[in-house]
Amino acid sequence: MTSDGTMRTVDEQALDAAAGWHARLGSGQASARERQEFDAWIGASPEHQKAWAETQSAWALVGDLADHPALAQARRQARKPAASRYWTPVAIAAGLVAAVALGVTWKSVAPPSVAPSQQTSVAALDYTTAVGQVSRVALADGTVVVLDADSAMTATFDGKTRRVTLSRGRAQFQVAHDAAHPFVVTAQGRGVTALGTVFDVDLEPSAVTVTLLQGKVAVRELTSRENPRQAILAPGERLVASGEGAWSRRSVDTAQAARWLKGDLVFDETELGAVTAELNRYSSRKLVLADTGLARTPISGVFKAGDPEALAEGLAASGLARVSRRSPDQIVLAKP
Questions:
Q1: Which of 6, 59, 249, 275 has its CB 3.0 to 4.6 Å from that of 239, i.e. a possible disulfide?
Q2: Helix runs in the chain, H state only
Q3: Could you give the CA distance from residue 227 to residue 279 in angstroms, rounded to a whole number?
């Protein structure tokens, strides 16, 4: 009951419990038993799943406020969820507008070969960002994901494996250590397995790029072959797996590689087609290449996200391209 003697609804009780679970799991101090209890709780009721989705949405919007002293204190005091736990005012406010910033949906996931009576419902969260929007997402295991603009991913935890599928764009993963539950990111037929590490995955039209900033990851082809290709990356290494099957790896400056988190896009001998595609994630005014040959022109430099005009002017000044047409929604580049 509430302090005024009225009964709380099941939805409100589920929200209280979900907020408590988020605080406990996000603290990094949850025991294996508590994780099992969380799995049992979220699988016990669709209302629990809905409450967890709303909680995740709210915290994704909190963003930089997640490190506010009041919220940090709430995490430090987190214990197992109880019916008396209430959302903090900032979490409630964020929850009211969660649907505006993130498209979050729930679905039931189960192998189709399993009989209906034996299927286990697994919570799966879909996260999307709009053009120009970058979101910070806290997953149930304590992992933090920075989802780049115009990107999409799905997170599914089945009690054995923590699995994320990146279907569009780019994301950085700051993985919570949990040796008993591997963390696997899949993108375009490749899997990246990590334990307690920080890495970027960038899904381009013709390639997947994995950049390791901290820790250790294994990149593997997800094929039916007996010995699929794999590579173990060390911090400061970047692997590019093209759609044609070619793999290449090289060392990178990790500080430079992470500058996209601050809105700086760094390119080093990158084909112009890939450069324009990346800048187009951040602006409704699109860069369009009028000549296919222009797409293969190598470009180096640092550009501000959301400023396609600066790239166009730089290309024109260097004689690499010319602006053939400008409009409110397009900048068309052609051969000089």
A1: 249
A2: 10-26, 32-43, 46-62, 69-76, 89-96, 98-101, 254-257, 272-279, 308-318
A3: 37
Mean pLDDT of all residues in 273-297: 92
Across-strand partners of 123? Answer: 108
Neighbour count for residue 80 (Cβ, 10 Å): 16
Half-sphere exposure of 124 (CA within 13 A, CB side): 15
Predicted model pTM: 0.64
| Helix/strand/coil for 300 | strand
10, 91, 174 from 219: Cα distances, Å: 43, 36, 16
Contact criterion met (CB below 8 Å) for 62 and 94? yes
DSSP string over 2-19: -TTSPPPPHHHHHHHHHH
- Rounded CA separation 257/46 (Å): 40
Rounded-to-integer distance, Cα 55 and Cα 262, Å: 26
- Residue 224 inside a domain? The answer is yes
pLDDT 10s digits, 45-59? 777 777 776 665 555
Using the 3D structure, point to which of 101, 131, 151 is the last residue of a domain. Answer: 101
Tell me: do 53 and 149 sit in the same domain.
no
Residue-wise pLDDT tens digits, 10-59:
466 777 777 777 666 655 566 767 777 877 777 777 777 777 766 655 55
Last residue of a domain, one of 218, 239, 260: 260
Over residues 84-121, the pLDDT tens digits come to 333 333 332 222 222 222 233 323 233 333 333 333 44
